[in-house]
């Protein structure tokens, strides 16, 4: 409202990034992850699934044109703003949020590096090991790591088949997890 009053136009990328982000959130909240693959249905478990899907979109967008890079940056900014808001809703005080945000950002980018290397190599086992290490380090053997790694590979293929024009219009599609 204030932006309109001052004559500022809304950021077109923001609207598209919001549309893409809502698709990512919907993909990350699919019950299959939590009910059948034993991803913890906790704030941290939901962060892991959201981070994975944000990463997969970023992975698809890398090497694209400037417009796709701008959209990806807007999406990433929105993701971290959402994480900040979530921390505050969990009752983390103003003094504790920056420290936790730094930790979560390190976690996200560390995971992105590990997941990216496994995807580049087409190594399902390395991806499953990274998921085990990051999502369920409390279990010696996590049966959800294998299905989740196959799902991530399928998401990568599905996103690769979508044109940059589709993505720039916010028309991103994620496949449903298959048992």
Automatic annotation (TrEMBL):
Pfam families from the UniProt entry: Ubiq_cyt_C_chap
Ubiquinol-cytochrome c chaperone domain location: 37-174
Protein family per UniProt: Belongs to the UPF0174 family. Belongs to the CBP3 family.
Source organism of this protein record: Aquibium pacificus
InterPro entries, per database record: Ubiq_cyt_c_chap (IPR021150), Ubiqinol_cyt_c_chaperone_CPB3 (IPR007129), Ubq_cyt-c_CBP3-rel (IPR014569)
Protein name: Ubiquinol-cytochrome C chaperone family protein
